[in-house]
Each structure stands twice: as C-alpha cells, then as structure tokens.
Design a protein that fits this description.
Strand order of the largest sheet: 3-6-5-7-4
Strand content: 5-15%
Largest sheet: 5 strands, mixed
Shape: globular
Structural class: alpha/beta
Radius of gyration: 20 Å
Distance between the termini: 34 Å
Length: 300
C-alpha cells in the first residue's frame, strides 16, 4: 500500500487554503529492504517529487523507524503515518490546523479498517471491532487517548516529538510500542486529542498465524506496561471484561489443561481462520487469541 499512501499524501486535496504544498516534506523510512521501498514508491511518485526523501531505518521495529524519520524532518508539525494507512482528503491540512495555535498536544486521527479488508479477512474484522471499541472509549473518556494510543495516524509539534522520543531502550514492548509511547507522552504533560474528522483508511490484513503471534507479544508486553506504568495502565480491551476471559485466565493457570486447550483452539483457528468472515470463524479466532494471550501472560 506504500505507493497508494504516498499518492494520497501528495494529492492536491490534502492542502487547505493558504497552505503551501511546496513546504511539506515526506520522509519514507526504509526499515528493511530499501530496494523494495523504492520500487513501491514508484507507483505513488512516478515523477520523482523532490519533496519525498527515503532514509534508511535501523531495522528494529516501528518505534525506531518513526524516530529515524523524526530526526530527518525540519517542519514544525510532524505527522506519523503507517505504510498501510491511506489518508483521506484534507488529512494533512487538518493535522496542521490542530497544532496551529498551541503546543503540547498529541492529535490522533481516525483510521477505520478499510471495508474491502473487513469483507475478506477474519483478522481484519476482529482488529476493526477492537479498534472501534477503543474509539468509543476515546470519545467518552479523553484521558484514555494517550493511555491506549493507536499509532498510524498521529501528529505532534516537532518540539514535543523530540522531547518525548518514540523509542524505549527496554525492548520489551513489541506490538505495544504505540501504547508505551502514549504513556510517556502523558507523563511528560502532553494532552491527547482524538479527531474523527482526520480520517485515513487502514488496509489491515494479516494471516491468522501472524495475528496470533502478535497477540502473544501483546500479552507479554502488557505485563511490562503494567509494571512500569502502574499509575497509567488500564486494561481497556472490551473482551477482558467478559466472563469468558476471566474463565480462560483461570484455566491458563492449570497445566497441562491450558496447554491442550491452547493447542486445540489455535489449530482450529489456523485451519479455518484464513477466509471469508463468518460468525463461527470469527468466534474461533477470538477464542484462540484469548487462550494464546492467557498462556503468554502466565508463562511469559
């Protein structure tokens, strides 16, 4: 999707009245294969727009890649976009306007999962349900914006972004780097703001095997987050409030019952979870994810 992201960023409809489009700079961090990144960018920037620069990333994950990009920019407002998040019209102008009169804000835009992804992918459907539930919490309790930060469509003033780096030296927050960054922003006195009009479509899609591995990483990182930020950490996932989750967490402490249940549910999810979403398939993957997370949290 990188070419589509770039084409959308450079489109004329991104710039509001009086906004000089020649002053923006687009930094693409090639965190893995620079050749593949260059090839992908050709479709979105065939004429070689001089506003676009590629910098090499350290190959240490998204937080370090974002930090490398931050260190390469000179503008007053920095917008972080993931490579599968395609901006809608006016996104750049909206983020810039949000920071026009003040500092100390972390502005989070809305990035719903693209309909095409939800229609064909079970993991995209589950991810979308999680995300929309979090957005409802943001609206009802703005303090949760930084305590449950979702990256991918986030802006700060550059002075604030440099004051609170994206990276953390502990290397223990894999799959939850965004949330850890939000905690540090909160401790630094920054204020989160969720603006649903700043929309970008998230082309999320992942096979079940990778989705479950990520779920295990998130469960392990959650423990570190709770230990490091006891004053800020909130277990805000809707699923974690259900009786089913509590039962699975209890069962995870009973070995080898938990091991057998995880293997069975994970095998079922891997077999039927990559395909057209149905209620039973979605439920199978959700339950498998719960067992994977409970097991990871219990065993580390």
């Amino acid at each position: 999707m990188l070419g589509c992201v770039l084409a959308a960023v450079l489109a004329p409809d991104q710039f509001g009245p009086g906004m000089r489009s020649d002053l923006i700079e687009v930094v693409v961090v090639a965190d893995r294969s620079r050749r593949e990144v260059e090839q992908a960018l050709q479709s979105g920037n065939p004429s070689g727009d001089a506003r676009v620069r590629i910098v090499d990333g350290p190959g240490r994950g998204p937080a370090w890649a974002r930090q490398r990009g931050l260190e390469s920019v000179t503008g007053d407002v920095v917008l972080f976009l993931d490579d599968d998040v395609v901006p809608s019209a006016g996104l750049l102008a909206g983020h810039c306007q949000a920071h026009a009169t003040t500092t100390g804000r972390v502005v989070v835009g809305y990035m719903p999962v693209a309909r095409e992804c939800r229609e064909r992918s079970i993991t995209a459907t589950i991810y979308s349900n999680d995300y929309e539930a979090e957005c409802e919490m943001f609206a009802s309790d703005p303090a949760r914006i930084l305590r449950g930060l979702w990256g991918g469509n986030v802006s700060l003033r550059r002075v604030d972004a440099r004051r609170v780096p994206q990276v953390d030296e502990s290397h223990r927050f894999r799959s939850r780097e965004d949330e850890e960054f939000g905690f540090r922003c909160a401790r630094a006195g920054l204020v989160g703001e969720f603006d649903p009009t700043l929309r970008a479509d998230h082309w999320f899609d992942r096979r079940v095997a990778g989705f479950l591995r990520g779920a295990a990483d998130q469960a392990r990182a959650e423990q570190y987050l709770a230990e490091r930020y006891p004053d800020l950490f909130v277990d805000a996932t809707v699923e974690h409030r259900s009786a089913l989750v509590r039962a699975i967490r209890v069962a995870a402490r009973v070995r080898p019952l938990a091991y057998g249940m995880r293997r069975a549910t994970e095998s079922l999810a891997r077999r039927y979870g990559d395909g057209t979403p149905t209620r039973s398939r979605i439920r199978a993957v959700v339950i498998a994810r719960l067992f994977v997370q409970a097991d990871a949290a219990h065993c580390g």
